[in-house]
Design brief:
Enzyme class: hydrolase
Cofactor: Zn(2+)
EC number: 3.5.1.23
Number of strands: 40
Largest sheet: 9 strands, mixed
Keywords: Hydrolase, Lipid metabolism, Membrane, Metal-binding, Sphingolipid metabolism, Transmembrane, Transmembrane helix, Zinc
Number of helices: 16
Bound molecules: 2-acetamido-2-deoxy-beta-D-glucopyranose
Distance between the termini: 69 Å
Structural class: alpha+beta
InterPro entries: Ceramidase_alk (IPR006823), NCDase_C_sf (IPR038445), NEUT/ALK_ceramidase_C (IPR031331), NEUT/ALK_ceramidase_N (IPR031329)
Length: 795
C-alpha cells in the first residue's frame, strides 16, 4: 500500500466506513448462519405451454375457463390445443405441474365481433412506508423518508385480442425500478388468482425511476445494503398495489381501440455524460441531431364509442428533478405529468381517483438528466461540464446540475408540465390505429455467461458483475459521498487494500474481463449472505400489432437504446414484420444498473462504471433481444428455452431500525394540535398545523385510511365538509418529525393555490399508532384529528 497521509476528515471517514462495514458483516454473518440460503423459486404454475385458455370454441371461453377448478380439468384443457404461439418456453408435453386456476368470480364473456382489442386500465396505490426507510435512487446514506409530497401509483394496462386469448399486460409503477423479488412475487399472486392467464412472458413491470420512492424491496445484497435492509412492510404494500392495479384492469376490460403517435419534446433534457457520448463513432453520431432521444411515443386508448380510457407515454428522462436533499416521498417529474393528465381527464375526482389512467413510463434514460441548466460548481458558479465533472476548487462534490426552476419542486413541476403538454398534443392528434395480433416472448438468461458473436470471426463474453470506481463518484444529479471522480480508469491502492481486507480480493479473471474498468466492488464474486448482484436476468418483448415493447432490465444510455431499437427493428423486418415501432421500456423486471455502448464504456464515467456485466453487455442484450424478435416474427416463441430460473432467497436482512411503540407527551394524545392554524390565510400563503404524531410507517401495515391528510371546505348549502385535497395532491405536504423514544410531531401544510375558492376550511390528520400491551402482540391503531376551522380570503 502506497504511503499516504490522511486529513482528519479522511481518517474519520475511513474509521466510520470500517466500523460500519464490520457491523454490517457481523450482522450479515449472524443472519446467514441462522437462516437458510436459497429456495428455488416455485414457479410450478407457469405453464409449459400457453395453451390453457386455448379452447377457441365459444365466445364464452373466459367464463367457462373461470369455472375450471380442478387440476385435472385444467391440464386436460391445457393439452387440448397447443394453438397459441405466444408462450416462450420449451414445449414439454407434461403439464402436470400446472397449478389449478383459481378464479373466484366468473368473468363476463368477451365479445369477438369487433376489430381492435379488449382494453382494461387500472391504478392502485403502492406508496409503501414514508418514514424509517431510505429513498431509492441516490444511494445516499441519511436520505430517508420523512413524509409525503405525493402518493406513488401502479398503473396497469391489459390488452387482449377480440377472442380474449392472447393478452399482454404493461404496468408502469412510480418506483425507482422493478426488482426481481417484486416481479416474482407479483407473478406468483397473479398465478394463484388467474392461473396461466398472466405470466412471465406477457406481463411487463416497469419502474418510472423516481428517486423519491422508498427502497427496501430487493433481494440482492448490494441493494439490501443501499436500502439499509429489506422492508417486508413496503414490499407487501407494493406487491399488493401492483396486483390490485392489474386486477382492476382485468375487471374493467372492454372492446376498444389503440392509437399511436410520436413527436419531439424540446427543452426537457440534457445528456449528463456528453463526453462519453462523444466516444461513439462519428459516423454513427452524425445520423442523429441530438445526444439525447427527444422522441415521445404515445398510445391513446378508447372504447368503441370513443370514450377515453387511458394513455401510455414513453420518454427518456431521469426523474431526478427532486435532488438528494429531498425527504418527502413523491413521483417526481414523470409522476407530475401523470398527475396533471389524470386530473384533467378525471374531472371532479381527487388525485389518484377516477377511471382514467395516464402512465408516463421510462425509456433509455441512462445518461439523460432533467436538470437542464447543466452542471455548475456550487462554490464558484462556473461550469463543470468536463469529462470528470470536477470543479477546480473542491473537486467533484462541488459539481451539481440544477433544473430550470427556483427550487427542486418548481423544477419538477416545470419538467413534468412540459412532458404533460406534449403528451396531450400527441394524444389529441393520435390517429394511426394499432392493429394486429398480440404476442410475447421472454427468457431468463445467465447474464454473466453470454457469448456474444461480434462478427463472423470474433466472439466476446459478458462478465460476472462488478462496479467500477466511478460508480462511487455518482453523477451531476447527485454525487457520491467519498469524493471519487468520474472517468477514473485506474484504481487507488488505498481503497483497493481496504476492499481486499474487508471483502477479499477480486479474481484476475474478473479484473481482466471488466477492463478498462477499475473494479471497486467485485459483486459477482461476493455471495454472503446472498449474491450481491443478480446473475439471472429477464429479457422480454411484447408486441401489440406493429408496436414492440422491449422490457429492459436496467438503464440504457441514449446510444445504447438507439442501437437496440435499430437491431430489433431490422430483425423483425428480416422475418417479414416491416415497419415495427420499437419502444425501449426502462427499469423492467430486475435491476442491473446501467448499460452503455462499448465505446462509452471505455471512458468509465458513472454509467459505464455501473455497466455491471462488462464492456459487451449491450452487444449481449442486442443479440438476446434479436432472438426474441425473431421468435415472434417466425412464430417460434414456443421453441425459445425458458432459461435458468432466478433464485428466491428465503431470509433477507431486515431493517435495523426497530419498531417501537408510539408515545404522546404527558397529558396529550395522538392527533392533538400542538401548533394551530392561523384564523385567516390569503391565497398564495401556506396553511400549517402541527399535531402530536405517530410513526407513519404504521399506516403501511394497517391501511384503515387511504390518506394521511385531507383539506376540507365547508359547504354552507349542505352544511357538510367537502374534501378538496388529499395527500396525493401537489398542494399538500405531510412532514414527520421523529423525536426520542417514540415521540414525534406531524406537520401538515397546504400551499393554498391562487385558484382556491375563498371560504372556511379545515385540515385533518389520519394516522396509526403502534401500541403494545404487556405480553400481547403489538397492534397499530387508527386515529384521526381535525384542526380548527380557518378562513381563506382572496386578497
Ligand atoms: C418435462 O417436464 C417434466 C416434469 O417437469 C420433466 O421431468 C422433464 O425432464 C421435462 N422434459 C423436458 C424435455 O424438458
Ligand atoms: C357485439 O355483440 C354484442 C352482444 O351480441 C353486442 O351487444 C354489441 O353491440 C356487438 N358489437 C359490435 C361492435 O357489433
Ligand atoms: C410480510 O408481511 C405479510 C403481510 O403483512 C405477512 O403475511 C408475512 O408473514 C410477512 N413476512 C415476514 C417474513 O415477516
Ligand atoms: C475532493 O477531491 C478534490 C480533488 O479532486 C479536492 O480538491 C477536494 O478538496 C476533495 N474534497 C474533499 C472533501 O476531500
Ligand atoms: C437541492 O435543491 C435545493 C433547492 O430546492 C437546493 O437548495 C439544494 O442545494 C439542492 N441540493 C443538492 C445536493 O443539489
Ligand atoms: C451463471 O453462470 C456462471 C458461469 O457459468 C455460473 O458460475 C453461475 O453459477 C451461473 N449462475 C446461476 C445463478 O446459475
Ligand atoms: C471482428 O471484430 C474484431 C474485434 O472487434 C476485430 O478485431 C476484427 O477485425 C473484426 N473482423 C471483421 C472481419 O470485421
Ligand atoms: C478525468 O477523465 C479522464 C478521461 O476523460 C481520465 O483520463 C482522468 O484520469 C480523469 N481524472 C481523474 C482525476 O480521475
Ligand atoms: C413501411 O413504411 C414505408 C414508409 O412509411 C412505406 O412506404 C411502406 O409501404 C411500409 N411498408 C409496409 C410493409 O407497411
Ligand atoms: C420448434 O419446435 C417444434 C416442436 O418441438 C419443432 O417441430 C420445430 O421444428 C421447431 N422449430 C424450430 C424453428 O426450431
Ligand atoms: C413537537 O412540537 C413541540 C411543540 O411545538 C416541541 O416542543 C417538540 O420539540 C416537537 N417534537 C419534535 C419531535 O419535533
Ligand atoms: C388495524 O386497525 C384495526 C382497527 O381499525 C384494529 O382492530 C386492528 O387490530 C389493527 N390491525 C393491526 C394488525 O394492528
Amino acid at each position: 500500500m502506497a504511503k499516504r497521509t490522511f486529513s482528519m476528515l479522511e481518517t474519520f471517514l475511513i474509521f466510520l466506513l470500517v466500523m460500519m462495514t464490520a457491523v454490517t458483516v457481523a450482522l450479515l454473518s449472524i443472519l446467514f448462519i441462522t437462516s437458510g440460503t436459497i429456495e428455488n423459486h416455485k414457479d410450478s404454475g407457469f405453464p409449459d405451454t400457453q395453451s390453457s385458455p386455448a379452447t377457441q370454441s365459444s365466445p364464452t371461453t373466459q367464463s367457462s375457463l373461470a369455472t375450471q377448478s380442478s387440476p385435472t380439468t385444467q391440464s386436460s384443457l391445457a393439452t387440448l390445443g397447443s394453438t397459441t404461439t405466444e408462450g416462450s418456453t420449451v414445449t414439454n408435453g407434461s403439464t402436470a405441474t400446472q397449478a389449478p386456476s383459481v378464479m373466484s368470480t366468473p368473468e363476463p364473456p368477451l365479445f369477438q365481433n369487433f376489430s381492435g382489442y379488449h382494453i382494461g386500465v387500472g391504478r392502485a396505490d403502492c406508496t409503501g412506508q414514508v418514514a424509517d426507510i431510505n429513498l431509492m435512487g441516490y444511494s445516499k446514506t441519511g436520505q430517508n423518508a420523512r413524509g409525503i409530497l405525493t402518493r406513488l401509483y401502479s398503473r396497469a394496462f391489459v390488452m387482449a385480442e377480440p377472442d380474449g386469448l392472447n393478452r399482454v399486460v404493461f404496468v408502469s409503477v412510480d418506483i425507482g425500478m422493478v426488482s426481481q423479488r417484486l416481479r416474482l412475487e407479483v407473478l406468483n399472486r397473479l398465478q394463484s388468482k388467474y392461473g396461466s392467464l398472466y405470466r412471465r412472458d406477457n406481463v411487463i413491470l416497469s419502474g418510472t425511476h423516481t428517486h423519491s420512492g422508498p427502497a427496501g424491496f430487493f433481494q440482492y445484497t448490494v441493494f439490501v445494503i443501499a436500502s439499509e435492509g429489506f422492508s417486508n412492510r413496503t414490499f407487501e404494500y407494493m406487491v399488493t398495489g401492483i396486483v390490485k392495479s392489474i386486477e382492476m384492469a382485468h375487471k374493467n376490460m372492454k372492446p376498444g381501440k389503440i392509437f399511436i403517435n410520436k413527436g419531439i419534446v424540446e427543452g426537457a433534457q440534457i445528456n449528463r455524460s456528453p463526453s462519453s457520448y462523444l466516444q461513439n463513432p462519428e459516423s454513427e453520431r452524425a445520423r442523429y441531431s441530438s445526444n439525447t432521444d427527444k422522441e415521445m411515443v404515445v398510445l391513446r386508448m378508447e372504447d368503441l364509442n370513443g370514450a377515453e380510457l387511458g394513455l401510455i407515454s414513453w420518454f427518456a428522462i431521469h426523474p431526478v428533478s427532486m435532488n438528494n436533499s429531498n425527504h418527502l416521498v413523491n413521483s417526481d417529474n414523470m409522476g407530475y405529468a401523470s398527475y396533471l393528465f389524470e386530473q384533467e381527464k378525471n374531472k371532479g375526482y381527487l388525485p389518484g381517483q377516477g377511471p382514467y389512467v395516464a402512465a408516463f413510463a421510462s425509456s433509455n434514460l441512462g445518461d439523460v438528466s432533467p436538470n437542464i441548466l447543466g452542471p455548475h460548481c456550487v462554490n464558484t458558479g462556473e461550469s463543470c461540464d468536463n469529462a470528470n465533472s470536477s470543479c477546480p476548487i473542491g473537486g467533484p462534490s462541488m459539481c451539481v446540475a440544477t433544473g430550470p426552476g427556483e427550487d427542486m419542486l418548481h423544477s419538477t413541476q416545470i419538467i413534468g408540465r412540459i412532458l404533460y403538454q406534449r403528451a396531450k398534443e400527441l394524444y389529441a392528434s393520435a390517429s394511426q390505429e394499432v392493429t394486429g395480433p398480440l404476442a410475447a416472448a421472454h427468457q431468463w438468461v445467465n447474464m454473466t455467461d453470454v457469448t456474444v458473436q461480434l462478427n463472423s470471426t470474433h466472439t466476446a463474453k459478458t462478465c460476472k458483475p462488478a462496479l467500477g470506481y466511478s460508480f462511487a463518484a455518482g453523477t451531476i444529479d447527485g454525487f457520491g459521498g467519498l469524493n471519487f471522480t468520474q472517468g477514473t480508469t485506474v484504481g487507488d491502492p488505498f481503497w483497493d487494500t481496504l476492499r481486499d481486507q474487508i471483502l477479499g480480493k477480486p479474481s484476475e479473471e474478473i479484473k481482466e474481463c471488466h477492463k478498462p474498468k477499475p473494479i471497486l466492488l467485485h459483486t459477482g464474486e461476493l455471495t454472503k449472505p446472498h449474491p450481491w448482484h443478480p446473475d439471472i436476468v429477464d429479457v422480454q418483448i411484447i408486441t401489440i400489432g406493429s408496436l414492440a415493447i422491449t422490457a429492459i432490465p436496467g438503464e440504457f444510455t441514449t446510444m445504447s437504446g438507439r442501437r437496440l431499437r435499430e437491431a430489433v427493428q431490422t430483425e423483425f423486418a428480416t422475418h417479414g414484420m416491416q415497419n415495427m415501432t420499437i419502444v425501449i421500456s426502462g427499469l423492467c423486471n430486475v435491476y442491473t444498473h446501467y448499460i452503455t455502448t462499448f465505446e462509452e464504456y471505455q471512458a468509465q464515467r458513472y454509467e459505464a462504471a455501473s455497466t455491471i456485466y462488462g464492456p459487451h453487455t449491450l452487444s449481449a442484450y442486442i443479440q438476446l433481444f434479436r432472438g426474441l424478435a425473431k421468435a415472434i416474427a417466425t412464430d417460434t416463441v414456443a421453441n425459445l428455452s425458458r432459461g435458468p430460473e432466478p433464485p428466491f432467497f428465503k431470509q433477507l436482512i431486515a431493517s435495523l431500525i426497530p419498531n417501537i411503540v408510539d408515545r404522546a407527551p404527558i397529558g396529550k394524545t395522538f392527533g392533538d394540535v400542538l401548533q394551530p392554524a392561523k384564523p385567516t390565510y390569503r391565497v398564495g400563503e401556506v396553511a400549517e398545523v402541527t399535531f402530536v404524531g405517530a410513526n407513519p410507517k404504521n399506516s403501511a401495515e394497517n391501511q384503515t385510511h387511504q390518506t394521511f391528510l385531507t383539506v376540507e371546505k365547508y359547504e354552507a348549502a349542505s352544511a357538510t365538509w367537502q374534501i378538496v385535497h388529499n395527500d396525493a395532491s401537489w398542494e399538500t405536504r405531510f412532514y414527520w418529525h421523529k423525536g426520542l423514544v417514540g415521540h414525534s410531531n406531524t406537520t401538515i401544510q397546504w400551499h393554498i393555490p391562487d385558484t382556491a375558492q375563498p371560504g372556511i376550511y379545515r385540515i385533518r390528520y389520519f394516522g396509526h399508532n403502534r401500541k403494545q400491551e404487556f405480553l400481547k402482540p403489538a397492534v397499530t391503531l387508527p386515529f384521526e384529528s381535525t384542526s380548527a376551522a380557518f378562513e381563506v380570503v382572496t386578497s
